[in-house]
Each structure stands twice: as structure tokens, then as C-alpha cells.
Amino acid sequence: MRVDGKAEGPRQSMSWLHTWSSLILGWLLYAIFLTGTLSFFQSEMTVWMKPELHQSLPPQSQVQQVQTALNFLQHKAPDAGAWNINLPSSRQTTTELNVRGANEDPRARRGGERITIDSSTGEEIKARETRGGGFLYRFHFELYGMPRIWARWIVGIATLMMFVAIISGVITHKKIFKDFFTFRAGKGQRSWLDAHNATAVLALPFHIMITFSGLLLLMYMLMPWGISSVYPDRIQFLQAQRAEMLGEKPPSHQEGVGREGRGEQSQNQGNRNMVAGQDRSQSMSRGEGSASQSGQQRGERRNGAPRDGARERRDLPTQTAALTDITPLMLYAQKQWSDNTVGTISIIRPNTTNSEIEIKALYAESVLHRNVVPTLIFNGVTGELVSDAKPVYISVPTGIYNAVTVLHEGRGLDLGLRWLLFISGVVGTLMVATGLILWCVKRAPQQEKQGFKSFGFRLVENLNIAAIIGLPIAIASYFYANRLIPAQLENRSDLEIKTFFCIWLFTLIYAALRPARQAWLELLTLAALMYLCIPVLNALTGGRALWSSIYHEQWMVASFDLVCLFLAILFIFSFFKLKKHKGTVKVKKHIQPKQALAEAVEEA
């Protein structure tokens, strides 16, 4: 109900909903948006935070990379139950190996001995202990220091409120698309509203997609009833979903449930690719005969035909046998995937008569296929092609779910698309920040009029400072702690995280003790200095210097330093912009002399 007693229209009634749904959890949403945006490059952050890995400069030939890894494995663990080779890529400088024992499940998500080697020399690299970009990624949807289920519920509710705020914001601002092309600088509240509208509309499809897909990723927890009415648990649902994409008969509720869930939860590129096609690969690896015969076998598998012959072959006694030359297999895979590249190679039961070689592509065929990648299966002794399978069917609901969740997670995407998502995430972070600042700017005149700042207003001011500028400072301190804490110190990754939270708490206390304007200026100065010095810190603490990383085209390291320099420039610009700002001069028409005199005295 309006002040004049008339009923509010839909647009007016949405205004309060937009304001309070975004303010109540606005600071949490800002943290979620910022850490989620950085998570698009979590692998690059992890590489930067392990300077020991910077020395590895992968050769151009993947065949040479594989041969270097095989030479190491043949010397290190010739009698292993399985080898997994995760090749270098645009997001990884080294070759990551996993060695499984004879009694271990070769396709389990966890287990085995993880080894990192130099892609060129084959020398083992011992990197420092750190959570790397994985900490910010996990903080994005699990927060920290509380039970995982509670953290995900909090993030889920915040995401829902974000979705409500976006929709209500579009309804409230009827000229939002028109105002997108208008920015009035130096107009105080009007300028902040223009900035808020522009950042909202510029990436509006991204904002809607990222919040909606975030809810989809948590739907098993937020709304489990539809799935639980058909499937006994979430893992069975994921198994059926993958079977549908592969054109296979869905597994019964009594069959094994471990692999699919593990595949969906994989965090790093190597394990993700290894798990991505595991059920498909396990079925294909049981086939016999030539490539033409394997096609017939795949058809039988999709129709649910029994595979007793494959089981018998696996049960045959294992004898020692030389591993086939992998070079022709790699060349064949590269020819088949002309628009893709090899991601991982798994060798099951190496150096035996029952050995199998699984070559998996780095990327799925499209975002509709999520993490299901093309896979070739070869006989490890003869080199004969056993199977070549690709996803054959995607239903509309599955395709929508896969597309939006893959874009949300940023996994298996090429570099250009990830940069586009990253920039959109930065715009979304600015949208939340400008909205929080706008709340204070809009109410500042009333606070000045009453002669003091209310507790609620001052609280919002402090939280704005601690969130908007305090969180970037805390993230920078996380990078500094990574390089300054001794590399061999035990539990150093926990110390890095504790440094992050201690500095973040410091910014909140600092904001409470200083006048708001001074706190903004001083913390902006600190942030600019910290990010400006990060490339120097990298060069002085064992990392590859910026000029060297650019020269050697090690862009995952160079881009990290360059982004830090860009952020430093942004903070410097914000500092001078705020320092010049003297407040908005209000011009009023037809002001009575007495009123003008009273306002002049008040301003003085």
C-alpha cells in the first residue's frame, strides 16, 4: 500500500522485494560471485601457487609427452595394476601420473600414487602442499569451517534470493534496457544506479544462467523428491543419465553405484577425464576383434545384450607381455579427433597379455555431453582397435541440464569461452557491489539530515567495505602466504587459509574503527600495492617471471600476473576517483531565502 492509500502496482510492489532480497545476503552473494568467477581459472591459480611446476615446458608433440611418461612408468612401476597419464594442456604445464596397485580398482576416483613429472625431461617434481584455486572453488559453494550440508543449504538459499533479486530487478526498472545506454557521471545516486543497471543488463543472460544452473546443481539437496520417487539415490539417477547419453540400457537399481557419482564430483582435469568415460570404457574394453567387429559389439551392448565372452577373456590367466608401441595409437586418435586433442591415457594391467589402452579426448563433443568424452580402446599387446564409442543421444531435459551446468562449472571448455564466462562473472560481481553501495548512497542524505549515522546504516557501510574491498585483499594475502610460508612446513595449506580469514577479519575491524571514506581510501591503497607486487613476488620466490613466462608462452602463469596488474590499476583508478569525489551538489529550484540560508549553515 502506498502512502496516499492507493494500491501498489506490480512494479512498485517488487521494489522492496528487490532491495531486501539482495541486501540481506548481499555480502555473501558478493563473496560467492567473486570466488566463483575466479574458479573459472582455478587450475591456473593452482599452477601459479606451485612455482615448482613452472620449470616444466611441454614439448609440442603429444607423442613425445606420452613416451616420456611411459619411460618413467616403466622404470618406476612396471608391475603396477594400472597407469593413468594426464597430458599437459593449456591449463597444465606438467604430466600428471597415477599408479595403481594390482589389487586396486583402476577406475576408482581416489587411490593410487600420484606423481608429477616434468613434461620434457621426465624428472619427478615435488611441489609444495597447497589447496590452490581449489580452496576458492570450494568456498564458492561450501563456504568453510562448517558442515558441508549446512553450507550448501546456506549457499542454495542465497542463490535462490539472488534469482529473485534478478527477476524482481528487471520488473522494477521498467526502463532498465533504455538506461543501459545512459551513464551520467558525477551525479551521485543517479550514477550508481546507472552503473548498477548497466552491469545488470550487460550480462543479464549470464546472470540468469549462472543462478539457475547453481540451483540445478543443488537440486538433489533442495528438491530431492522427484528423483527419490523414481531412483533409490542420487548416484542411480546419475548412472541412468549417463547411460542415456551413451545409448546404453540404464543400469538396474541393484547394480554397482560407485562410479557415476564419482565421475560427477571429480575436481581436477586428470581425474575428470579418467572418470568421464569409465562406464563406457569398461563395457567397451571387454570387446574382441577388429574395429568393425567392435561396432557390432557396441550395438549389442546398447541393446542390453550379455557380454559373457568378455568376462571369460578377463578371467584368462595373466602372463607377461610387452606393451605395444603407443605412437601409432596416438596418431590414429589425433586423426580421428581433428578438432580435439588427447587428454588422458589409461593403461590397464600394463606389460601383461590382458593389457588395455584407453585413450580419451580432452573435451566432450559439446556442452550437451557434459564430461562424457570420446574414447578409443586398444588391445595393449597387439594395438588392435577394440572399441570407438561416442555419445549417441541427448534428450531435451538432459541437454538443458548438461549445457547450463557445464557453463556454470566451466569444465571442459575452450579458453575463449572460459574468458567470456570470467568477464561476465566480473560484471556480475560489480553488479552486486554497485547494488550494495547504492543502498548506502541512497540513504546517505537522510543520515546527514539527522546529524548522525544510525547503527544499521553504519553496519551496512562496514560490511560493504569488508566485503567489496576486504575480500580482494584477503585473496591477495592468500597468494602471499602461499609464497612466504616455508614450502616444506607441515600443514602449510591450513596456514594459507587461516591467513586468508585473518586478513579478511582485519579489514572488517579496520572499517569499523575508521571513518568510512578514509577506510575506503586506505584499503584501496593497500589492495593496489598488494596486487601490484604479486608479479614481483612470483619472480622472487621461485616462480617464472612475467617476461619469461610470456617469452616461453606459458600463458597460464603470465595471465595470472597480468590480471593482478590489471586489478592494481583498477584499484588505483578507484582510489583517485573516490579521492576527487566531494559529494553531490544538489541544485534546487525556487528555494526560499530562509531555506537556502538554513541549508548553507547546515553544510558549513
UniProtKB/TrEMBL annotation:
The chain crosses the membrane at residues 20-41, 150-171, 200-223, 419-441, 462-481, 497-513, 520-540, 555-576. InterPro entries: PepSY-ass_TM. Residues 247-320 are annotated as: Disordered. Residues 279-297 have a biased composition (Polar residues). The keyword Transmembrane applies. Residues 247-263, 298-316 have a biased composition (Basic and acidic residues). Keywords: Membrane, Transmembrane, Transmembrane helix. This is PepSY domain-containing protein.
